[in-house]
Specification:
Blueprint lengths: L1 H13 L3 H9 L14 H8 L1 H19 L13 H20 L12 H11 L1 H18 L2 H19 L5 H17 L1 H9 L13
Helix pairs in contact: 1-4, 1-5, 3-4, 4-5, 4-6, 5-6, 5-9, 6-7, 7-8, 8-9
């Protein structure tokens, strides 16, 4: 029963379509009909500017952190086993990513799950999150391709987690691989544009025209 509750809560948390709601509330537009047509922080930066972009990014990351921390609110129902707690964390986290990509509150048309995935990593393994974020920033700042930074971080994430896990947590390794694959698959159109040299570059610190 607790596992079911965590999965449902994780999905609904992930389903909060921050970019969609912000676009409709402050600009009366559907962010999914503009720019890259993606309901995520990157497209919010492009279409609505830095102020709303940073806000969407913060909320989407927070969704992942909250989903990963859900079991902490139910410690009185747990048996106290560490493996059981980790399984609940991973189930809530995975559900949040699914919710972000296929949000019930936005006709199942969501974002790519990168910011929410970062939040999940922060909630479960903050040290791995710091390394992944550093890799993302290095790739992004040097190339100005947000997608390339996200894809590179997703590829590195399983290896980073493996070397930062002290105990034998095979389910964690499986989770990191699945999460990394999900992020990469969500960027398949970006990969195609990168290969063709047609991907849009971005500078988060530039003023919106």
């Amino acid at each position: 029963m607790l596992l079911f509750i965590i999965i449902i809560l994780g999905y609904f948390i992930g389903s909060i379509p921050t970019a969609v709601w912000v676009g409709k509330a402050f600009r009366n537009i559907d962010i999914r009909e503009h720019g890259s047509k993606n309901a995520g922080a990157t497209n919010t930066f492009r279409v609505l500017g830095k102020r709303f972009g940073w806000f969407v990014l913060l909320i989407d990351v927070s969704k992942g952190v909250l989903a990963a921390c859900l079991p902490h609110f139910f410690t009185h129902m747990l048996l106290g086993y560490k493996d059981e707690f980790l399984i609940l964390q991973l189930c809530g986290a995975f559900s949040a990513v699914v919710g972000h990509v296929f949000p019930i509150f936005a006709n199942f048309r969501g974002g790519k799950g990168v910011a929410t995935s970062l939040g999940i990593v922060i909630g479960i393994n903050p040290y791995a999150a710091i390394v992944c974020l550093a890799i993302f920033l290095i790739v992004f700042i040097s190339s100005r391709y947000v997608s390339l930074g996200a894809i590179t971080s997703a590829l590195c994430f399983p290896f980073i987690s493996y070397f930062m896990i002290n105990e034998d947590a095979r389910i964690m390794i499986v989770f990191t691989v699945v999460l990394g694959v999900m992020v990469i698959l969500a960027h398949r159109k970006n990969i195609d544009r990168l290969l063709k040299g047609e991907e849009n570059k971005m500078n988060l610190f530039a003023k919106k025209a």
